[in-house]
Amino acid sequence: MVLAVCLGAVFYYGVGPAPGGTGSGEELSDFPTATPSDSGSGNDGAGGAATETPPFSLTINNIKECGQTCRDVTTTLHNNQDETATGTTVYTRIFAGEDNTAEDDIVWEGKKEVGTVEAGGSRTATERIDLSLQEAWKIDRQNGWITIVMTIETDERTVTFQNSEQVA
Hints:
Blueprint: H1 2-12, E1 56-67, E2 70-79, E3 85-96, E4 106-117, E5 122-130, H2 133-140, E6 145-153, E7 158-166
């Protein structure tokens, strides 16, 4: 959810987020998602009554304009777990529309191999979000709404977040 809010902010400061399908990001043939049984939130032994810290969180550090529909976004992935995360890859898809995950509405997608993130550690990277005018228009037609789906996949677990934001 933190990532979705951050990505929403990224797109808000631009013409509007419209990553995906035709010329933006990296076209993904496989996009993993977590199911409730493999999301790996753990159990604190209190019968599920306590609020659990998510295994990962994301912070947006900087958004730099690189064109009318382009932003360089620097983010930090935090490993909130007590164990090292190995084989870490972050998959992101942005769709035009609120609560929409239809394949035809992908405006940007990307995959970032992060590798190992120590327990309590973090990794920082910069990703270029470059939208075509057609992708930005697709978001505009949805009253500025986008849906962001992000999956963090490690050797130990897979966690998926989804959130909708109105960015324009």
